[in-house]
Amino acid sequence: MPEQPAPPLPASGDPSPLPFSRVLVTGGAGFIGSALVWALNRRGVDRVVIVDRLGTDEKWRNLVPLAFEDYLEADDLMPRLTSGALGDFDCVLHMGACSATTERDATYLARNNFEFTKALAQWAVPRQVRFVYASSAATYGDGAAGMDDRAQDAASLQRLRPLNAYGYSKHLLDLWAARHGVLDRMVGCKFFNVFGPNEAHKGDMRSLVHKAFGQVEETGSVKLFRSHRPDYRDGEQTRDFLYVKDCVAMTLHLAAAPSASGLYNLGSGVANSWNELASALFAAMGREPRIEYVDMPLAIRDKYQYRTQADIGRLRAAGYTAPVTPLADAVRDYVTHYLVGDRRLGDEG
């Protein structure tokens, strides 16, 4: 490990005060949701109501360093919201969803990711409450129809072919909003491969950085999937990796920008290989790279994306000017200030 680590990276983006006095954050104990609460706190907003399902994992630990007004279990939200018992909000940041790309219960995904989001949007939009929700780059499928967020109409969105039920559940909401003429009255964030602190509870859905950190500590090596396509060498499949600090800065920028509406790609704009990500991890841990390639499970082989890269032109056109943290710097910050010591956002000291 570096003997004298640099201080943790600041939250990227505009540090100016936000135009919100009270915010509802669903999924607020989860990965991106808790990071949003952290970023809100850093910009002076602590009148936050968090909604989630804490369950039996340890995502409650993400809440410990954060300042917020109240916590509510997800099943209680809509009755209390529609009755007026929760009071007024300026903004809803809806991050609550099942994010497991391997989830096969499409009924559960439709109810949790689509119907719940639709009901919340139908409450917020007529009341002119700013509504920002988590879509996903998984809606693009294998990318054969492009990964272009300039396509905002239902006919264009209909051409996308998600590869799994999770991606389809997110796609359903995008399509519904476009077909019913409300997409231009809300913001949908198409998150690419987000990684960083506060993801420890996500199990198999954790980023490679989190998984591989444990692998390196235990065995000294990292396992990556072999390529099963001749046009990609092993480990050279690429992803658009986005550090969570950049992700939440982008999301809050869109939430605060009155002219921003519709779907936005939220990524780094760069396609990095898994080999590059693993090398950045070894460098951050002060170790020599040792990579082992293993066969990709048959269950996901025909649903695997070999390349993702966000075009963030629409985000830039919406006024987001902050530079995106380079991959190596983001991995170093994550490893040095969070994975070492098992810390959460807000524990920086």
From TrEMBL:
Pathway: Nucleotide-sugar biosynthesis; ADP-L-glycero-beta-D-manno-heptose biosynthesis; ADP-L-glycero-beta-D-manno-heptose from D-glycero-beta-D-manno-heptose 7-phosphate: step 4/4. One of its GO terms (biological process) is carbohydrate metabolic process. It comes from the Bacteria. Binds 1 NADP(+) per subunit. Residues 23-267 form the NAD-dependent epimerase/dehydratase domain. One of its GO terms (molecular function) is ADP-glyceromanno-heptose 6-epimerase activity. Its cofactor is NADP(+). Keywords: Carbohydrate metabolism, Isomerase, NADP. Its EC number is 5.1.3.20. It is an enzyme of class 5 (isomerase). NADP(+) binds at F31, I32, D52, R53, K59, M95, G96, A97, C98, S99, N112, K170, V194, K202. NCBIfam families: heptose_epim. Belongs to the NAD(P)-dependent epimerase/dehydratase family. HldD subfamily. Contains a large N-terminal NADP-binding domain, and a smaller C-terminal substrate-binding domain. Catalyzes the interconversion between ADP-D-glycero-beta-D-manno-heptose and ADP-L-glycero-beta-D-manno-heptose via an epimerization at carbon 6 of the heptose. This is ADP-L-glycero-D-manno-heptose-6-epimerase.
